[in-house]
Structure formats: structure tokens, C-alpha cells
Amino acid sequence: MPLLLSRVDDRLIHGQVVLGWGRPLGLERIVLVDDDVAGNDWEQELYRMAVPAGIEVVFASVAGAASQLGAWQSDRRRTALLTGTIEAMASLHDADPDAMHRINLGGVHHQPGRTERLPYLYLSDAELAFLRRLAADGADIVAQDVPTAPRVGLDALR
Amino acid sequence: MNELRGVVVAHSGLAKALVEAAEEISGLRGVLVPVSNTGCDRGALEERVTAAVGTEPAVVFVDLAAGSCLLAVLRRLRDREDVRIVTGVNLAMLVDFLFHRTLPPAEAAAHAASSGGSAIKVP
Predict the structure, then answer these.
(1) Whole-structure pTM over 0.80, yes or no?
(2) Per 3-state DSSP, what percentage of chain A is helix, strand, and coil (rounded to 5)?
(3) Are B56 and B109 in contact (CB under 8 A)?
């Protein structure tokens, strides 16, 4: 079973992921890709607390995840992969464009220099241009915070 | 004796609604500070929590026993001896806290948690 969801979400594991996506997708594993969390046992335990029994949680650095994408893609377990930043997701896409073909923008919140594109999606002009280049390279990038919300393509973002 | 500050950290508009309801029931206004995670990444939510709690003794109430709100609270406050954290916030818990703010933080937190738990029934 391929990776069912590859999501950029700066809150990483939280209710929208575990419940909003986890139930309809029947997730069996969540891969959290974040260099800081990968090196912090205490934070890993907190993220595990947010996940129901029956869903495995795997923590990986960006470099570590890049070498595992093929294995996760071919594994039978129904898997979602999360990064906290667009840059991390782009690195994974570069490492394995097939496994990371579809990219979900699920939660990128306000920071200085960013503009609201959707209520849950704030991007600077440079970030939006970067995503468009990634799409031109073949990535299928869609904004959608929860499965019941409309899918919004990059072309619709202003 | 100084009275404790109470901070409610929750998803969407829940904290504000709980604080307003607790104030209406108790008549005590301006004691509880609501914090929403709306529009925040992890860092921004941590900043909101830190600003709301300040430097005085406090009890922080969180909606879920896991997730972004609790994570932000624990990241910033887990080393504060004068702050206690209670999850599963409900209205009974907050009202209890409002009338026990002269207790030390650990006792006020335990008292509120007990009241909040006792309020959950299947009549």
C-alpha cells in the first residue's frame, strides 16, 4: 500500500491528522519527519499520546526518511507521512518523486512575511513560487485541511 | 495571600466560551484567561501560552490530554514549579477553581480536577 497521505502541517500530529484523516483513511502508521522531534524522546512520547492504539508512530529525520520512502511506499501498512515545513517535504520529494508525488498542504500558519491564502494556509510569495516550481517538476500539490473540505489546487491560491 | 491565575488553552473558540460561562456562573470576571490555538503554528501557540500565564503562580487547563494545545503547554511550562496543568477541562472544573484560588497551585489543580471528574455522570 503506498503512502496514502503526505502532508505539510506545522502542528505535526494533532486532531485533524489522527481523527480527520486517520479514520477515513484507516491509517495504521504515521511517520513524523522532523529533525528536532527525531532527536527528542520526550517530545516523541507526547506525540504518541495523541495517537490511538493500533496506529504505529515512526519518528525520522529528513535524511533518515529520505532513505526509507521506498520501503514505506511498498509496505502494506496504510501510512501517512507528516512534515512540519515545506522545505522538508520538498527534500523528500527530491529524494523519491514517485513515492512523494502527491503532497497535501494541511496547515501552514502565520509567520512574518506570510499572507493568508486559505484560513489554514499562510504562504510567503517565495514559498508559493517554490511550491509552483515543485508542481512544475511533477508534484501534485493540493491544499486541504480535512477530507470534508474542498481540495484547492495551487492555481487557485492568490 | 496572592490568588492564582487560571489559563484555559483549547481548540478553536472553546476556551473563550468556557471562560465566559464560568464568569457568568461565578460572577468572577477577569480571572481566567482564554487561549485559542486558532491560526497558530507550534511556536506561536507557545508564545500565546507563555504570555497568558505570565510569571506568577497559575493553573493551566487544557482541553485534550494530547495534541497541540497540551504539547505547547508542556513545552513551555513543564519546568515551572509554580504552575500546574490539568487536562480535560470542563465548566465544573473552572468554577471550582475560581473559588479555590488561594490554595497552592498543586492543591487547586487537584481540587478542580476532582470536581471536574465528579461532574461527569450518566444520569
Answers:
(1) yes
(2) 40, 25, 35
(3) no
B67 has a chain A CB within 8 A of its CB: yes
User: For B29-76, what is each residue's pLDDT tens digit?
Assistant: 999 999 999 989 889 999 999 999 999 999 999 999 888 899 999 999
Strand ranges (E), B37-82: 58-62
**Tell me, what amino acid is at B53?**
V
Whether the predicted interface score ipTM is above 0.85: no
For strands A56-60 and A121-123, give the pairing: unpaired
Give A93→chain B minimum CA distance, Å.
23
Residue B20 to residue B17: CA distance in whole angstroms: 5
Q: Which residues of A touch B76 (CB under 8 A)?
A: none
Cβ–Cβ gap A46/B66 under 8 Å: yes
- Nearest in space to A64 (alpha carbons), one of A42, A86, A83: A83
Distance in angstroms between the alpha carbons of the first and the last residue of chain B: 39
Taking the CA of residue A146 and the nearest CA in chain B, the distance in Å comes to 15
- Say how many Å lie between the first and final Cα of chain A, rounded: 35
- CB atoms under 10 Å from CB of A2, counted, come to 14
Please give the Cα distance from B49 to B69 (Å, whole number): 9
